[in-house]
Design brief:
Layout: H1 2-30, H2 35-72, H3 76-98, H4 108-129, H5 136-164, H6 169-174, E1 176-177, E2 180-181, H7 182-187, H8 225-236, E3 245-250, E4 256-262, E5 268-274, E6 280-284, H9 296-309, E7 315-323, E8 326-335, E9 338-340, E10 345-350, E11 356-360, H10 362-367, H11 380-384, E12 392-403, E13 407-418, E14 421-428, E15 434-443, E16 446-449
Parallel strand pairs: 9-12
Antiparallel strand pairs: 1-2, 3-4, 4-5, 5-6, 6-11, 7-8, 8-9, 8-10, 10-11, 12-13, 13-14, 14-15, 15-16
Helix pairs in contact: 1-2, 2-3, 2-5, 3-4
């Protein structure tokens, strides 16, 4: 009886996907749009699916990194913080899974594991908050959990590569192989013998709460669309403002005017300018070249110059990496030798022509404000004693880092190595608390700091 019900559910899901796809096409007919516009509506459905898939990948990747940090952390307070974040990642991963058109019966083990992971890590965090410590059994289970998440991450990242090569979630969900659609057949690798799901005990659901942050860095008056358009033309330099197309407005944390540009070579740009002050918030452009003619150091200079043209000065490179034919560069202001990480700006530069392909200044405009940096109370030598002795310290810097509840804390940033991996450990420069750990993750898409 249960099998019949599952099959009905699977067929219903497939029919629903087909109906949704047909509805997208029908919209084009009803409103008299062209065939090309109809295709765009079909593409939007695929974009929704891919957005949820990539967010699923992000949540799993983040959970894996944080579980790894828990196993190397020396602080129960920091472990509790990370366990809560893993619980949140697992909860979000469950949500993203449920928004993909897979056959419901095909991923039972994975869904059960993700659900239990959220409750288990939340329970451990509560125990730590109540003054308990992780038992040897807890640590052993977390090691098994981490290994399972690594396996899931491997399968999802393999699918990510296929997405880049044109794999369509919508098409796969419409094709059936027995009780499962083709998408489910791809995902069922996560239920295979290679993935061992450990037994976990947990006490109830995860409870999430988020604080809405105030935008601090846009203390300007509103500008018109024309002013924002002219400002964007000055930043891009090689594109006359009159060639930029206004495509609408967006409202969220930031209110923006949105613009597009496309030339005969196939270059396409999407940019958002803030209504307050007419500042560039985001820019994206695909790379249509495939050569490397520019060194990373030159790409960093291009990124700094681009940020300066948007009216942001005194920034320094805090992270850079080459992925394929592009350079990814993170910039942050520096005050009295202290890196201001809350005001981070991300820039992507094409290593062929030196064009800026990506720009994201949301963190900068969310957090930027006048700051008075208090001097460190703890000496560097004392802070070093707070770092796990298994980690080999290579470098130390002072940095202001963002924490939950809109807090910013001055820390010693220790660059460390252990077993071939690089970690960044942040020790509070006022009271010696271990506030954060970041790990350099080597991937096929470059080195990531998580």
């Amino acid at each position: 009886m249960e099998t019949v019900e599952v099959k009905k559910t699977n067929r219903a899901l497939t029919i629903a996907t087909i109906i949704l796809s047909i509805a997208v096409i029908t919209l084009g007919i009803l409103y008299g749009i062209s065939i090309s516009s109809s295709i765009k509506y079909q593409t939007s459905l695929e974009n929704v699916y891919q957005k949820n898939f990539y967010e699923l990948v992000d949540e799993v990747n983040n959970a894996e990194t944080k579980l790894n940090k828990i196993l190397v952390s020396n602080s129960n307070e920091y472990r509790a913080k990370l366990l809560k974040e893993v619980s949140k990642n697992a909860n979000e991963a469950q949500t993203r899974l449920n928004m993909l058109p897979y056959s419901i019966s095909g991923l039972s083990d994975t869904i059960t594991f993700v659900n239990k992971l959220s409750g288990y890590t939340e329970t451990l965090a509560q125990n730590l908050d109540n003054g308990k410590s992780l038992s040897n059994d807890n640590v052993a289970t977390l090691e098994k959990v981490h290994n399972s998440v690594v396996d899931i991450k491997k399968y999802l990242n393999t699918m990510s590569k296929q997405m880049w090569d044109g794999y369509s979630i919508t098409d796969s969900s419409l094709k059936m192989d027995g009780d499962y659609n083709y998408l489910t057949r791809k995902l069922t690798a996560m239920n295979g013998a290679d993935v061992e799901y450990p037994t976990m005990i947990y006490d109830g659901p995860f409870s999430d709460s988020q604080l809405n942050k105030e935008v601090k860095g846009l203390n300007f008056t509103d500008v018109s669309m024309e002013v924002a358009k002219n400002n964007l033309g000055k930043i891009l330099t090689d594109i006359p403002a009159e060639d930029l197309n206004f495509s609408g407005e967006s409202n969220g944390h930031f209110q923006t005017y949105d613009f597009t540009y496309q030339n005969d070579e196939g270059k396409y740009i999407f940019a958002q300018m803030t209504k307050k002050g007419g500042k560039l918030l985001t820019l994206s452009c695909p790379n249509i070249y495939n050569n490397k003619k520019i060194e990373l150091a030159n790409a960093e200079k291009i990124a700094i110059d681009f940020v300066n043209r948007n009216g942001i000065n005194d920034v320094t490179v805090v992270w850079s990496d080459i992925v394929g034919d592009d350079a990814y560069i993170n910039l942050a202001p520096k005050i009295s030798g202290v890196i201001i990480y809350p005001d981070l700006i991300k820039v992507k530069v094409d290593l062929d022509k030196g064009d800026v392909l990506g720009y994201e200044a949301s963190s900068y405009y969310m957090n930027h404000t006048e700051r008075k940096i208090l001097p460190a109370r703890l000496s560097e030598s004392s802070a070093r004693q707070m770092v796990n002795s298994s980690l080999k310290i290579k470098e130390c810097k002072l940095a202001l880092i963002p924490l939950e509840y809109d807090r910013e804390v001055l820390c010693y940033e220790f660059t460390c190595n252990m077993e071939g991996s690089t970690y960044y450990v942040y020790i509070n420069a006022l009271n010696g608390v271990e506030e954060n750990i970041l790990k350099v993750v080597n991937t096929d898409n470059g080195n990531l700091l998580m």
